[in-house]
């Protein structure tokens, strides 16, 4: 039995039922299983947003030759973290590895992922520690260094280097420091160098919230791309603005095309569009990658969108007129499609857990083992609410997850929808009894007797925001649905993730985890 150490990268879905073959299965209550996860690529030279579905906000992207790499916020306190994605066309993405292998005691917010010289750098803001860390590697695949404290407070770092080799780091609220030549330490005090773009006073926003400074050097200009208006406030509040200067520290002039990206109406599909990063292609085309909520399904979190940009004769960038974030957009020219994707299902058939799993509030390497097509999860805590479940990030709007739970002495093991903290609902097995754990209610309710020697297959469905419970005593041949609850009532519309938990003493045991979309 080997614990989760160096992550084995699976680049294909582990179960045929989720392999992307396009098959569907009709279920009761009109539910149809989608056997493939979301893809932006429409197969005809066009894509539709998002390019990465699910809670992958605060994207930071870089190009290295004809390869693109991206990482996102961690959203959860999980170790390892900072998943790196790889693409050849900016539309199709495959997972590479986790870059951060150290528990920093906090989720990581909007990072900056850059290459300088022969090294890759990832600047990591850690709000609970009140500082920015940096890790480095000779390749996106690693090995990644231990984190180093840069010595600057703030969030949303943005790195820039001048042609003569001076390096700077911008952070939120318009502040900046100069870095040491190796990029690992601040060598000057933090100084205010930018005030942001002043939007019209009658706009309804969450706050001014000058965030996400990302810098691009082009044709003798330093372009500062920022987010303003607040991420989670009114659907029309978040925005992307641009300013430029002949130096990394100003003075700045504001783009006449501001805001470069903004949701203009509450009726639009994509709400709170903002937090942009520019990227170019080897062919000389430019794009802006940013995040947004689906206005009708906010519990998916902040998803990754992309729009083309053009450079005007007077040296500003803008989204070309007529480009619609909801419409069909041409895939960048000259690229190719990567062969892999991130799996959601897992048959636990290898000797290490798949890259799709993360431990909510802990180190997955210390809690998980895989052997004989079985996941062993070290029990923790006294009940599901404090057991630090292992979860996946769903990548379909609506989906279902199911798993087989084996009897384990002195262990309560189950399948859950988890929204962080004590926000959990699900089904669990303990001493031959199947229990329902209802969101927002203390304790649990017994629903079936399975027998102490048997296994139970459990299923949860997120069906258009309704969270449904199911169980089967005959390995999925027949199912009993016992209840449902609205996500709004259960979790206040928060992002939920399906996952597995075990509490008590010993090891929870699971087989055949399936996760597919439904429509």
- The residue-averaged pLDDT reads 89
Radius of gyration: 23 Å
Helix fraction?
A: under 10%
Strand tally is 42
Strand content: 35-45%
Which parts are unreliable, with pLDDT below 50 for 5 consecutive residues or more?
A: 1-24
CATH class of the largest domain: Mainly Beta
Which fold name fills CATH's third level, the topology of the largest domain?
Tachylectin-2, Chain A
For the record, give the distance between the C-alpha atoms at the N and C termini, rounded to a whole number.
38 Å
- Largest sheet composition: 10 strands, antiparallel
Structural class: mainly beta
CATH structural architecture of the largest domain: 5 Propeller
Number of helices: 1
General shape: globular
Question: What's the name of the CATH homologous superfamily of the largest domain?
Answer: Glycosyl hydrolase domain, family 43
Number of structurally distinct domains: 2
